[in-house]
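Predicting structure from sequence has reshaped protein science. With that in mind, we have picked out one protein's residues alongside their backbone shape tokens:
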Amino acid sequence: MIGTVFALGGAAEDEAEGRPLVVPANTVGEQRTSVLYGKADARHTLSVVVDPRCAPCARMEAALGRAMRQLADKGAYRIEYRLATVEDDARGGKGSRRAVNALGAAANEGPEKFVRYLDAVLAGRSGREEWDGDALASPNTLLGIAGRVDGLRTPAFDKAVRELTYLPWAKKVAAAHNQNGDEDALPAVTLDGSTVTVLGDDGVLVSPGEFIRQVRGDKG
């Protein structure tokens, strides 16, 4: 299966220049810049914004990712993952953008493979160790991580990672993040537009139990 191809308007002064905009399957939103996990007709929507190079995002995924997805599997809400590339802008490099390209390729393979790959990418070099420098810019690194996800390393996936098939989409995803005025620190989680606290002012993550209490509330 391949994503939808559009003409990409405007010249981009980066690696996306001259490439067609290919949108991965399993994406939603007006511009299809979010990756969907869960039942499309769920009554509520949990929005999760992460950057592949973001250390707090990695810690949130390690602590709360399973609880988030278990509730989605039960139909409590659907998850719309929104991928940011703010670390590239803040710290330099291409790691976030190229990782989002690879995550687009994973989304095209299926929601389950996307979330497992996202978890593996956020996990860093070993355990939950932050990616240093521009390590995620390497296709070999991204493909090596994909080897941890059963069935992800298809010829189509490998080609998309090496040839940057979804890089124009990654640029569109980053632009949508900026247009929404999401300057707050990542990770950012909302339920039907209302903030869900995942990281306290002291930088300490909430427990899975506290996360579940917040999102259950009086939601039916």
Notes: The radius of gyration is 16 Å.
